[in-house]
Write a structure and sequence with these properties.
The protein starts with a strand and ends with a helix. By secondary structure, it is an alpha/beta fold. The protein has five helices and six strands, in the order ββββαβαβααα. The protein has one domain (4-182): Nucleotidyltransferase, domain 5. It has helices at residues 65-83, 99-118, 128-135, 143-154, 162-182, and strands spanning 4-9, 25-31, 37-45, 48-59, 87-91, 123-126.
Length: 183
């Protein structure tokens, strides 16, 4: 990948070299951002949830926005190739005051959804309220609370960076919704 700084960590019970197999289901969670796009892969298996991999895709500062989008798309495609998720879950747009940030976030969501579609991975969307409620139990939880709960749920040795923690939370949310739909 050109023009990108990517940090990846494979902590917790997960292992980035694990192969998708019988009884296992992997979800790639995405926290879309034009400056930092967080990603996290969570696997549901007989033994519970485990972290396969998480990290951040950071386009270099000062490059054209179109280059940032290419970097993010390429980074997500690489994670999909490496981890073979059965689904991609992504946060819906968070309504805020800064319309420019919302438009950029929409573009990033678009390239993430395109990366999944081109790889044949189904996409599921969740609101920030749904994600926080599924992970913390409270829809108005703070970022720090989400980080701590993600660490506890996945039995991680350290707190993941905020954007990666949010992405892991999106993946956990999808697994919880998937369980609810199957019962």
């Amino acid at each position: 990948m050109e023009n990108v700084q990517t940090r990846t960590a494979g902590t917790g019970r997960g292992n980035g070299d694990m192969v998708k197999g019988a009884g296992k289901f992997r979800v790639l969670g995405i926290d879309p951002g034009s400056i930092v796009t967080g990603y996290g892969v969570v696997e549901e298996a007989e033994r519970g949830l485990c972290c396969v991999e998480y990290g951040e895709i950071k386009p270099l500062k000062g490059v054209a926005f179109s280059s940032c989008l290419q970097t993010i798309c390429g980074g997500i495609q690489e994670v999909i190739r490496r981890t073979a998720p059965g689904a991609l879950s992504i946060e819906t747009i968070f309504y805020g005051k800064n319309i420019r940030s919302l438009i950029k976030q929409g573009h990033v969501r678009g390239v993430a959804i395109l990366a999944a579609a081109e790889s044949g991975v189904p996409v599921y969307e969740y609101s920030p309220l749904e994600i926080k409620k599924a992970v913390v139990g409270f829809g108005r939880a703070e970022k720090g609370q989400v980080q701590m709960m993600v660490r506890a749920i996945l039995k991680l040795s350290k707190l993941p960076p905020p954007d990666a923690a949010d992405a892991l939370a999106v993946a956990i949310c999808h697994i919880h919704f998937r369980k609810a739909e199957s019962t």
